[in-house]
Sequence to fold (1340 residues):
Amino acid sequence: MRGNKFGKLFSFVTFGESHGEALGVVLDGVSAGLDFSLEALQLELDRRAPGRVAGTTNRKEADKAEVLSGIFEGKTLGTPIAVIVRNTNQRSKDYDKLKTEYRPGHADETTQNKYGIRDHRGGGRSSGRETLARVIAGYFAGLMIPKIKVRAYISKMGPFESTVEELREREDISPYNFPNTDKNTEIKKYLLGLKANGESVGGRISVLIEGTPVGLGEPAFDKLKADFAKSLLSIGACVSFSFGLGEEMANLMGSEVSTQRGNFGGIEGGISNGEDIFLTTTFKPTSTVGEKAKEGRHDPCILPRAVPVVEAMVKCVLADHLLRQRAYGDGVINE
Amino acid sequence: MRGNKFGKLFSFVTFGESHGEALGVVLDGVSAGLDFSLEALQLELDRRAPGRVAGTTNRKEADKAEVLSGIFEGKTLGTPIAVIVRNTNQRSKDYDKLKTEYRPGHADETTQNKYGIRDHRGGGRSSGRETLARVIAGYFAGLMIPKIKVRAYISKMGPFESTVEELREREDISPYNFPNTDKNTEIKKYLLGLKANGESVGGRISVLIEGTPVGLGEPAFDKLKADFAKSLLSIGACVSFSFGLGEEMANLMGSEVSTQRGNFGGIEGGISNGEDIFLTTTFKPTSTVGEKAKEGRHDPCILPRAVPVVEAMVKCVLADHLLRQRAYGDGVINE
Amino acid sequence: MRGNKFGKLFSFVTFGESHGEALGVVLDGVSAGLDFSLEALQLELDRRAPGRVAGTTNRKEADKAEVLSGIFEGKTLGTPIAVIVRNTNQRSKDYDKLKTEYRPGHADETTQNKYGIRDHRGGGRSSGRETLARVIAGYFAGLMIPKIKVRAYISKMGPFESTVEELREREDISPYNFPNTDKNTEIKKYLLGLKANGESVGGRISVLIEGTPVGLGEPAFDKLKADFAKSLLSIGACVSFSFGLGEEMANLMGSEVSTQRGNFGGIEGGISNGEDIFLTTTFKPTSTVGEKAKEGRHDPCILPRAVPVVEAMVKCVLADHLLRQRAYGDGVINE
Amino acid sequence: MRGNKFGKLFSFVTFGESHGEALGVVLDGVSAGLDFSLEALQLELDRRAPGRVAGTTNRKEADKAEVLSGIFEGKTLGTPIAVIVRNTNQRSKDYDKLKTEYRPGHADETTQNKYGIRDHRGGGRSSGRETLARVIAGYFAGLMIPKIKVRAYISKMGPFESTVEELREREDISPYNFPNTDKNTEIKKYLLGLKANGESVGGRISVLIEGTPVGLGEPAFDKLKADFAKSLLSIGACVSFSFGLGEEMANLMGSEVSTQRGNFGGIEGGISNGEDIFLTTTFKPTSTVGEKAKEGRHDPCILPRAVPVVEAMVKCVLADHLLRQRAYGDGVINE
Fold:
């Protein structure tokens, strides 16, 4: 009830401070009998890992997943699945000065005021490291929705922009999660330049969801769009969410919109209509700038590493709604 | 668990189809001993009521609130509060043709597919009428947070735009909920023009929240911004949410953002920092256009009537988080 | 979150004070497309109604169910179902003296202390009348589990005792819900005698559940037996719960128990094993005794009217667990 | 949603199979700033540990608690607290024969049927080892309710019986958790005799709760008695629950009960009245009997080790209700 649980039927709780013993997740809603692969899980974590590509933090941590329960002989048991990742590279003394210093745009001061206490050695519970638990949850969500294809990508990062059409043309867009991979060299140069200047930049991450069955989402508060919004705004640096035509809708007349079903972004009345679903989010620039930002472990742009987190949250929402729809056994989805 | 419940500690469930017997709400999380006024509640409902101003639907329904439980001698009892509004002006035969006809952008087809059955006489559960239950809930949320001032307003409607500064200058902005009330005559003319042409228009509703105590919101999934996002995206026509600088963050450098605390929109690390909170949403144009839209009961623009609904949802989120913070008894908020 | 909600997937919230406008229930978890009969629902309510048989309260209220939402053309819509019962026979002045008087064994004093306010005109929220909302919920639960047969009966009331074998021999055991209906005349005489003396009596209600599929119940906290226990102890006068051999287990050796599967009461490891499930509860005597109890509306024994409430709660637990098991799609139950 | 979570505001999720890597718990509802002692936590775990006293299992496991998150410099942070216990003494080959063999009275067969898969190496998720996670949760619950004294004890074990008065006379009743410690030698002899004969025995555990504030518990479904019932029936071998006079109520007249407030067991209308609360449960005999039961690791009687588990669950319920009552800020409890 302190907000560390996500989901209703496909639900999980995450725990861990950035400089504590470990971070982790307990999933209490995964079906039994699914094939589990530690290697596949680790690959997902590696996509989020720091220090993977030039221009992101060089804080290299193993981020090695350890499964404590819920898996037996390579299959899910239907019991809670606990996975932890130990913090191995804590470098706590780097953070000592933060004890009495609050970083703007971070949770330092609000955490201190909320609880009257905090782990000052880093972001604590509000650190970006918390998102690795989400990536683990997203891996298991993916096992539940094998027919749905969820792909997040950077649609804008500083001067670089990319379209969903560019994404559709490609299967793999690593390492920067930017569809137009021809720009990779330029992006690298751009990010290294930001870093050298102690600067950071925001941008946009979009999501294309293909293969969603008709009927996911509930008509009142748990509309599919509402749960997507919550899931993505729950990511630290995310400051906006839209779906379909999004903010552009403010400039359109009804006659322009109603002609084409695709304009509704795959969701009508809060319920999936079977079309592709399209989401867009805005991420603010990393708050740490100036001399401090030139230190190794800071990301000049969070976007490349945020992409797998966005994908994970979207998958968790879909898995949850799939289970919810299945429970009641009505409508076409269950036929 | 079918998504008709909202909130955790300040929680409520809504019910009712647009052409059924009644709509209503049961609140299970209101403190005892608060002063209740049926008149004040009715005033909130009237702000949302159809047919109130020229240029909106002329479907005039009493929308009269009837309290069934939880109030005794003018005070809340701490027990569940049930309030219903009867549907008096159903005009069901108008809708008969909809039995086999699905309106684009509405929930007609998705509802049919999800459940295998629907009340075809109107939007059913997905009708805008469902929002009157939210306005009732918002009234009670307001009783829980008397020191927080929540004001929603139209920041853009077709060619008309208004700023938060214009809002700050005024106490009352009715009837269009547009801060620059000098434009009321023009707006009226504009909306009547849309109506005559069977056209509709989208826009933006923004929210200014003053007086939020420090420490509301939880660091992981139930960040204050995440719960605001969910609450507003759960409104039918809402297609985007942002807070603080919002989408503009995609175009900014860290050095531009970090200089001013106000840029974080009153929320740092998902937790309120005591500053004003600023939210913005986009609403799509009403989907019904053409000849059908010229009929009396259709709104050419949903925004004026959506403003009290937006306010209500924001209040419900704040009341919920205030109770959550109070429960644990830690931090400055409880001193 | 103030405890007026029951169930997770088959969930409902109840509301209403005994002397307020109405009592009711909103169900948010009933499948779509089920056949609804107002007559059948009313019959369930009538089984609980006061004044039905000699020896129970003569407070005759219509207890007429009114459906406000969720039903369309005789079918459930999958949307929330709201049903209310108006309080027509409030006789409030009878209760005026209770304003400053707390009845022992009732919730009068604890309610006042908990909330700092109460509706003193009767039991308020803690009145036995609250259980009519449960009976309504139980009717809908029954629609979800048509293959499971739930029968509650009085196994002991004062000097009268009856066995599950006597129940198995009969289809209908009304009006006292005592299997050995040959005793009806004696029971009537006994209850009228109690009434004349301002006396009351406790007893036991047992439940036989036939046809439960294998696999309902969860291994840790939501064991089927745990949820049955909670559901029945949530009834006002219920003071004990047991299943299978129950308290007798305290006197048995392992070798005596393990020989026969039936001894485990249909639940092993918290999960149904497909055998008949057998539950027993104890109800305390009505707290009101003496001169006051001779007044018309008091029941000398709550048991006959509690039987349909017990059945309703058991059905709600079963419906909830059936939906939960169905959601995850694993195991034999889904084949 | 698969039933591994307990509590609403003081809530926690447990995980782990008896022969997996580890068992553990994540608490998401502990206040910030409480003093934590690993030694005190370990002492609670040791009370439940196997092999502690003669006549119980000789499966000696370290059951060493490892804190992964939520504690910083000896204080709770208000963030989720994760604690794990590794399984060090798995002896899995002992259990190989169980792959195709279902033990009566255990969850073996129901688990297989429910999930279509199971960890056959032991009780898996349904093993008694799962209760160590509850003991850990109970330790933290205790930190939240320092003024409430919860003491569980064996009131009947085979031929031995003890009363609450005997408990009141003593501060410490270890090692058998039987108040009349003069019987310790006899009990030891009795249990060793059972073991030698491959026999087991059931009994009763009672609980005395002193110092509960007035006003805990909710009037409808979350009555304090109902939540106690659920919490205790969620323990594997528990087959009955009662409070106050319990089953004896079936034999009493109203006039006998209403004379003394103590007869209501500290709970009126589901809400604590400030008096001592008295609970009683029945535990069935361990299901494993015969030659198999003579092997070292089997307990001839689960009661001595179940006592700290019962205490833990009761504390968790009280902490949860204390937080719930505090949240709403009404009534005497908050003054």
Summary: The longest strand of chain A covers residues 149-157. The mean pLDDT of chain A is 91. The longest helix of chain A spans residues 303-328.
